[in-house]
Structure formats: structure tokens, C-alpha cells
Amino acid sequence: MSDSNPDQASSIEEHASDDESEQRRIGARLREAREYVGLLQEHVADALAIPRASVSAMESGKRRVTGLELRRLARLYRRSVAWLLGDEEPSTELQGTLFRTTATLSDEDRDQVLRFAQFLASAGPPHRRSDAQRRGSASQRSPRPAESDEEHDR
């Protein structure tokens, strides 16, 4: 009689596939959270003291995230660990924060916040420029002309 069981092997393969799928989902949430707060992978890598390639691998689901990394990422991204793991939807957490924050505003101010939120929602997701684009635009700006002594003395 053989020690290998076809049903057991199939179960192990399914479990491995589920793990990989879950890693990809967690990675997608990590990327979403990072982009939402406007951080580059390099910034996250520096904060965690790991190579940028490791951040990329976590976000693509090719590398497991340790518990300590997950906790640090949650703090960095201002999200709960449960949200990063996919166990919690952000709306609950964000709605509570918005409610508490706007509770003390006047009706007029709350209307203004609502109009602004509707404007942002209609504009779609924010487009973030890369550091290279920001550096390029800064170097393309013309410097302010220096004041001459004559102009300064006036």
C-alpha cells in the first residue's frame, strides 16, 4: 500500500493556492493603502528598514508579510491591521472618523464638507506624480530674480 493519498495531495494543493490568493489580496490592499497616503515604495522600505524590492514583492503577493511588518505598515498607512488583512471594510472606520470630526461643525460647514466630498468623488482617484516628475517641475521653474541693492534700498 502507498503512503501518498490523492485526496490529501489535492487538499494540500488547494490550500497552497488559497494562501497565494490571500497573499495577493493582502498585497493589493498594501499597495492601495500606500498609494492612498501618497508614499513611494522607497519611503516604505526606509521606514521598515527593508529593501524596496521587498516592498514590491509584498505588494505583488510574492513575499509574505511578517506580523511586525504588518503592524508597522498599519501605523504608517493609518489603517487597521484588520483592514490590511481584508477582515474590515474601510467605510466603517472612515465614516466614524468623519462623523466625529464633523459633529461640531455648523450646518453650513457640514454642507460645505459634503459638497467638497462629492466634488472629490466625481473627480475620481487622485493622480500622484512621481518624485522624478516633482523634481523635474521644480527644476523647470524659473528662479525669482534677485533684488539689486538699488531696489532693496528704495
Label this structure with key terms.
434 Repressor (Amino-terminal Domain), mainly alpha, 2 domains, 154 residues, 9 helices, elongated
Structure, described:
The model is unreliable at 137-154 (pLDDT under 50). The protein is elongated. It has two domains: 7-88, 434 Repressor (Amino-terminal Domain); 89-127, no CATH class. With 154 residues, it is mostly helical. The chain has helices spanning 6-37, 41-48, 52-59, 67-77, 81-85, 90-102, 107-123, 131-140, 149-153.
CATH architecture of the largest domain: Orthogonal Bundle
Counting DSSP E segments of at least 2 residues, the number of strands comes to 0
The pLDDT mean sits at 78
What share of residues is helical? over 70%
Q: Report the order of strands and helices.
A: HHHHHHHHH
The CATH class name of the largest domain reads: Mainly Alpha
Q: What is the number of helices?
A: 9
The quaternary structure here is single chain
What is the end-to-end distance?
103 Å
Secondary structure: elements and pairs:
Layout lengths: L5 H32 L3 H8 L3 H8 L7 H11 L3 H5 L4 H13 L4 H17 L7 H10 L8 H5 L1
Helix pairs in contact: 2-3
Short description:
The protein is mainly α.
